[in-house]
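Help! Submission page says 'invalid entity' but I think these are all valid:
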Amino acid sequence: MDDRLQLLLDSFWPIVWGGITGTIPLALISFAIGIVIALVIALMRLSKNRVLSGIARVYISIIRGTPLLVQLFVIFYGLPTIGWVINPWPSAVIAFSLNVGGYAAEVIRAAILSVPKGQWEAGYTIGMSSTQTLRRIILPQAARVAVPPLSNTFISLVKDTSLASVILVTELFRVAQNIAAFSSEFLIVYMEAGLVYWLICLVLSSGQGRLEKRLDRYVAH
Amino acid sequence: MSPTDDALLAVSGLRKSFGENEVLHSIDLEVRRGEVVVLIGPSGSGKTTVLRSLNGLETPDAGVVAFAHGPSVDFSQPVSKAERDSLRNRSAMVFQQHNLFPHRTVLENVIEGPVQVQRVRRADAVSQAEALLERVGLAEKRDAYPHELSGGQQQRVGIVRALALKPDLLLFDEPTSALDPELVGDVLGVMKGLADEGWTMVVVTHELSFARQVADEVLFMDGGVIVERGAPAQLFTAPTHERTRKFLDRILRPLD
Ligand SMILES: Nc1ncnc2c1ncn2[C@@H]1O[C@H](COP(=O)(O)OP(=O)(O)OP(=O)(O)O)[C@@H](O)[C@H]1O
Ligand SMILES: [Mg+2]
């Protein structure tokens, strides 16, 4: 019993450290890039140009219709066979960014469409271009609508980064796997890893609540 | 057709279809500087479509919209987006649903166009906006968000937002029809004040008392054509067309 308690305490910081140096930066960087991709895809999807919207539609369909693990393997194990060797970390970032790009694109598209048409026209009538109107009038209002679902996307991403362990990225779960293999205490160590993910998600959820409140400032209730 | 001497705007042969449905059949109209033109007519007659065409929010299928000293856009030819949008340099629209930016304060709503589009210095835009808000009795609301205002106050901010652009022509699309009756007067009062000051306006409204007091010319539209036009005294008291008379009857005596 004491040995196990000791193991639990001894492994806690290494696992948390794996989260701080692996999981969290991996999730943050992938999410940031993913949101940019998603915005571009959403705008392409909304464009009147059939080629652009077609490309966006296919992209979203592929991302949502294939497992993230498969996407990760294609990039890390598949691409080297045609001469593109990508290291574990960048491979993970690429796979997660593309994945977020596909899921968040639909969220952003719906959020943009939720802003009343009159807001575009108000932008136009004061002389703004469509780009200016999008940036200054539409996106800030769409952001309010998009924040709750995008926060959920982010929280899912934090958990999905555990998949990076299979391409040997040192992150929270990979650290836990090493400790578990070394000590053979699978139950304790994996439950501990789960606990740390859960703590991270609790912190993120409270941040989500605060962000939503801030964005709600200008809305009547 | 180019505008005559004191004309600000000349529109001729304006046509517009939505799919199979032709909603404007050759609209001609002229607006002189300082004049108030009121557009009346039943629902679906095309009033909003005319206003939107003047502001480049709608692309007509044919016809010319020509402002004195330009731009003059001939929609019978292929028209670029930039050409169509250039119409907005001369006019600004006040919408029925005000369409204020909900994420911006009153002041930010008003200075957005001057600062972002016209590149006016922020400090100048702010002091001009404050003066305009003062004029419509909303000086103390400058830092409020639109949802904190009454409908009448929102619409007055909508008017100030348009005024701040210093357009040559103000377009109003039923600015009071979404308002509670007791708030209508404030907004019409502001509009009358603007007319007295010499602003050129095209107003779509069902407020016949406003038309009677303020309009220089009233146009009656029905089924996508201007059926009849004239000074309010003449058009309201002695309409020459049966359709005009029927419409006025329905508005003045809705229960008969
Ligand atoms: N974007 C659109 N697509 C299809 N039809 C449209 C569109 N906008 C207007 N219409 C049609 O064009 C006709 C004229 O509409 P418009 O809004 O100009 O009328 P209106 O005189 O302003 O009516 P109201 O008094 O109800 O505001 C109507 O039959 C309307 O259904
Ligand atoms: Mg209308």
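Support: the input was valid. A stray whitespace character was the problem, and the output above is from the cleaned input. Residues B 47-48, 173-174 surround magnesium ion (ligand 2) (CB under 6 Å).
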